[in-house]
Amino acid sequence: MLYTVSVSLQLPAEHQWIPHKPSHKQALFLSLSCREALYGGSAGCGKSDALLMAAAQGIEIPGYRAILFRRTYKDLIKPDALMDRARRWWSKTPARWSHEEMCWHFPSGATIGFGYMDCVGDLENYQGGAYQFVGWDEQTHFPGDWITYMFSRIRRTESFPKNFPLRMRGATNPGSIGHDFTVERYGIRTDAPFPPGSPPVVHRNALGMVDRVFLPAHAEDNPGLDWSDYERSLEQLTPIKRKQLKEGWWIQDSSGLVYPNAGSALFVDSLPPGEDWSYVLAFDIGASDNCAFAIYAVSKYRPEIYLLSTSEPEGLNTPRDLALHIRGLDSVYHFASIVGDYGGLGKGYLEEFRKYFAIPVEYAEKQNKRGYIELFDGAIANGMVRIVKSGCATWIDESGKLLWKNGQRLEEMPGMRNHSCDASLYGWRKASHYSHEERPIEKRLDAQEQLEAIAFTTEQDSLDRYGVVLPDCLM
Predict the structure, then answer these.
(1) In angstroms, rounded to a whole number, what is the distance separating the alpha carbons of residues 49 and 86?
(2) What is the CATH number of the domain that holds 309?
(3) What angle do CA 89, 92, 96 make, to 5 degrees?
């Protein structure tokens, strides 16, 4: 028997577009008419089916447009992922697949498309789009601002039925880049798991109307899954992943953090008094967002260095804007060194700083970034880098969230804010003399070395006085 949902979001009508009856939890999800809702938590809870069913709720409406996102194209085309599932559902129906458009066309004129966003530039592919449904498979794999941007693409035409709700729907497990955004947006508790039978988490606006709903779902809510066998598979995961995927516990896995020791850094209220401080400025130029600055304080009498300030000011859109900002900082701190990145826009900016603004900027050292990230994180852990808490809000926020892209730990997660982290890393590498001037090691010279040293000194003295080395008889 085949099932669908009608335009009124009810479930009894039979139809050819949904090939199995929704589970009880899926049916609850499909009945929601609020603008925004999220389904999932535990692994194996039927979230992909729930999302595809939700997209299909409007395909009898002429002009209805839905789109479903995964983070990458490879995610979209995986076996049993959304596109493969849709193919199994609709390939033997009157619906028609367009590979060029990555879209199913239905007899009513409705469409369900598939897309991906692997980097912030991919948002531009959807700037002109208009949809009545936007769905996110593995929603926590996306940055929060990408998700909220797509609300601007949800709209109806004059001819589209007024009684059919416009919707954004997500399905996901805990963890990854959008974890914190999702927890905050839906008011999801993080101090305990969501066991089977947990009630929805409902968020209301100031007028008491439902804004968004999180519907916790468990593998036991999915009657098509062999739960006892799947449970044995989940037992092989790390303890954190097991809590996330088996228990639906919304805790973040810190093992994927680029700076795992950032949260336990040694925070101070201010620099220790009575020191002769020198300062280092580092900056990271954002090609499409704000530049970031990091200021370090160094004293030759202390082994530790202090991250004094990080910031990401707005409005620094030209080399002149940036140069004037640096000049303003330099008038206060009189920096011993200024370093900046040279990737993207950086190299051209740095050349202009030197040529037209007389700012002695050095290229930031960017080789072996991963290795120096580990060294920097270790210096944070052992207190060799201390954080002035009141001045470093952007670094604290970013370092507590920034994730590696995958287990190889060669690249940070695309789309996550990292400019303050990068500026702080560049500054630390420049100031990483551990605040000590190296003391010279005294060495006694033997007789031959003494003669050579005297000859060298005499030669240098001649060069300094006359510009040439004169014969001994003329000196």
Answers:
(1) 9
(2) 3.30.420.280
(3) 90
Task: Look at residue 3 and tell me if it is in a domain.
Answer: no
pLDDT band at 471, cuts 50/70/90?
Answer: low
Task: Give the C-alpha distances (Å, rounded to integers) separating 75 from 182, 288, 396.
Answer: 20, 26, 31
Contact 152, 27 (CB under 8 A): no
Bridge partners, residue 93, by sequence: none
DSSP 301: T
Q: Are residues 416 and 470 in the same domain?
A: no
Type of residue found at 243 = K
**Banded pLDDT at 448 (limits 50, 70, 90):** low
- Would you give the DSSP letter of residue 310? E
Mean pLDDT for 135-151 is 93
- Check whether residue 234 and residue 267 sit in a common domain: no
Q: Do residues 141 and 287 share a domain?
A: no
Place of tokens 């009124």: 8
468 plus 369 within the same structural domain:
no
Q: Which domain holds residue 467?
A: 445-475
Number of domains in the chain: 3
- Look at residues 252, 275, 306 and tell me which one is the last residue of a structural domain: 252
In a domain, 7, yes or no: no
CATH number at residue 56: 3.40.50.300
Which letter does DSSP use for residue 3 in this model? Answer: B
Would you state the structure tokens that stand for residue 177, as one six-digit string? 């880049």
What's the Cα-to-Cα distance from 435 to each of 307, 308, 350, 381, 442, rounded to whole Å?
A: 12, 14, 26, 17, 21
Which pLDDT belongs to residue 120?
80
Segments of 234-303 assigned E as strands: 266-268, 278-284, 292-298
Quote the distance between the C-alpha of residue 14 and its chain's center: 43
Strands (DSSP E) along 226-304, which ranges? 266-268, 278-284, 292-298
What's the pTM?
0.65
The pair of structure tokens assigned to 328 is: 């303003």
- 248/270 same-domain check: no
Pairing of strands 96-98, 305-311: unpaired
Angle between helices 47-55 and 24-31 (to 10 degrees): 40
Q: Which residues pair with 305 in a beta bridge?
A: 385
**How far is the C-alpha of 242 from the C-alpha of 254, rounded, in Å?**
14
Co-location of 455 and 325 in the same domain: no
Residue 228 and residue 278 in one domain:
no
